[in-house]
Amino acid sequence: MAEDTAILFDKYGTNDPDMVRRMNASKSSYTRAESYKVFKFNANLDNVISTVDEERHSYLRNKMTHGYAGKGNLNLEQQIDNQVEKMIELIDRDYKSVGSDLRPLDFARLSQYFALDAITDVAFSRSLGYLVSGSDHYDYIENLRQSMAMNLTLSTLPLAWSFFDLGWIRTLIAPSPTDAKGFGRLMG
Q1: What is the pTM of this model?
Q2: 93 φ, ψ to 5°?
Q3: Would you say 39 and 151 are in contact if contact means Cβ atoms under 8 Å apart?
Q4: Predicted confidence (pLDDT) per residue in 112-159, tens digit
Q5: CA nearest neighbour of 140 among 87, 187, 181
Q6: Quick count: other Cβ atoms within 10 Å of Cβ 172?
Q7: What is the DSSP string of 123-158?
Q8: Count of C-beta atoms within a 10 Å radius of residue 161
Q9: How far, in Å, CA of 128 to CA of 132, rounded?
């Protein structure tokens, strides 16, 4: 099966970063497949990831451009620097090995903490505090890992996705601001 997947990927896919940039560029001639609908967070509302309507997708991307470009945020560099300092403090506090007391660092997890704190600090002028606590608040990262695995699987199985996309089922399984954990908790 892995060989079949590799053959299909070679024929129809790409791992070329320049090609991926061209495909995802604004006003690209490439269109979004129906499988993107799997990434809806709200059962009744598409987001910039899940919408397959090209006009709506362009509108949402353009709306986000200023935030990602840092325009209008005079504190952007300082906010990022603050999160870098917090990351270094976390490493010094929790991962500094002394003698035979080895404390391994999961850099993948650390980079997730940094990304979440940097993004939320820039977006909301305060971070979520992952780098201060050194832990996964509300099991957000674990919840995201699990839901991404399920969503990626469903994105390749259109019939299964059509069942989960039924309004009332989607409402039951989608994140909600009343959730105690995961993405829903951060929505509330």
Answers
A1: 0.75
A2: -75, -45
A3: yes
A4: 999 999 999 988 889 999 999 999 988 999 988 888 888 888 888 888
A5: 181
A6: 11
A7: HHSS---HHHHTS-GGGHHHHHHHHHHHHHHHHT-H
A8: 17
A9: 9
